[in-house]
């Protein structure tokens, strides 16, 4: 297919405004329509694809829906909905192979703002997300652009691949206003002594820097994979969950999550007593890691996480969109409820517990829920 045109339009209530420049930069307050017209090299037929992209903080109501439907009819097609941070590869490709998403309104965004952007590659495309300026959002696996006063820092995590580093530097230069300097820092090489960078970003001992990220620079892992486990479903006791996010993880279910370098058995807050499901999930995850061991530099570890729980920092960074608060039902607990597989199996095999271990119903032993605890 040969591209004829790509149009990006902002939709606010019943009005449409064409985006004239930086069409591959979206803002989380926007509703955008992207129209791609292409011609087949073989048949000469023209096809039209229309996406409706919605930012996490956009206003999307009846007027916007009606206007987008009207646009789709005008182009003789239907609108394909796209949520922020779930952009399909085809959409990224028609926008030049790179999409950046910024926080706040387009009209008010300025390169002079203090900002932090993470640059990652996926399926040979580049995805750039503005995140809150916080040390917890820094990870050894990726490249970052951090704008502070008259400086823009480009920080290369040790696991960041060449394409991400190039894209980060180009993005930083594109943001840089006149008089702004671009400073390149490489993790473990020349970043330790830059006091200004760490003073703004945070404690250099507190970011996600598991040793395994170093392997990413030579082998970019695939996107995390997820399976739901349900022994009661005899036809498909283990089924694929195609999109992994806090919204798709069901609290009544047990999930297996493959983050490539480590595996997690994630137990929903209403699934902690489902011993057969948890046991099958642990055994399956262990079998998966053994099968994958020959293609990895080390045997991936399997952890068991029980909701409510904080998420391991490096696990969060394996995903582009895994919201800790949403996963925990709107709040982030003050603890991490994590077990090794050995500890988890021991919990499941134990039939009696000391009263002291049953006081906190959010931290009950695995295999029990509040219905198993007799109230005094």
Uncertain regions: pLDDT < 50 for 5+ in a row? none
Structural Rg: 23 Å
Percent helix: 10-25%
Taking the alpha carbons of the first and last residues, their distance comes to: 71 Å
Strand runs, count: 18
Structural class: alpha/beta
Report the total helices.
Answer: 8
- Based on Cα principal axes, name the global outline: globular
What is the annotated CATH architecture of the largest domain? 3-Layer(aba) Sandwich
Keywords: Repeat
Protein name: Gelsolin-like domain-containing protein
InterPro entries: ADF-H/Gelsolin-like_dom_sf (IPR029006), Villin/Gelsolin (IPR007122)
Organism: Paxillus rubicundulus Ve08.2h10
Write up this protein.
This protein is an alpha/beta fold. It has three domains: 2-90, Severin (3-Layer(aba) Sandwich); 115-210, Severin (3-Layer(aba) Sandwich); 225-372, Severin (3-Layer(aba) Sandwich). 20% of the residues lie in helices and 28% in strands. It has helices at 62-74, 89-94, 162-175, 195-201, 275-292, 313-316, 324-327, 341-349, and strands spanning 2-12, 15-18, 25-27, 31-39, 46-54, 79-83, 98-102, 115-122, 125-131, 143-148, 151-156, 181-186, 225-229, 238-240, 254-258, 262-267, 301-306, 338-340. The strands form three sheets. The protein has a seven-stranded mixed beta sheet with strand order 3-7-9-8-10-11-12, sandwiched between helices. A hairpin with a 2-residue loop joins β8 and β9 (125-131). This is Gelsolin-like domain-containing protein.
SSE diagram, text form:
Blueprint: E1 2-12, E2 15-18, E3 25-27, E4 31-39, E5 46-54, H1 62-74, E6 79-83, H2 89-94, E7 98-102, E8 115-122, E9 125-131, E10 143-148, E11 151-156, H3 162-175, E12 181-186, H4 195-201, E13 225-229, E14 238-240, E15 254-258, E16 262-267, H5 275-292, E17 301-306, H6 313-316, H7 324-327, E18 338-340, H8 341-349
Parallel strand pairs: 3-7, 5-6, 7-9, 11-12, 16-17
Antiparallel strand pairs: 1-2, 1-4, 4-5, 8-9, 8-10, 10-11, 13-14, 13-15, 15-16, 17-18
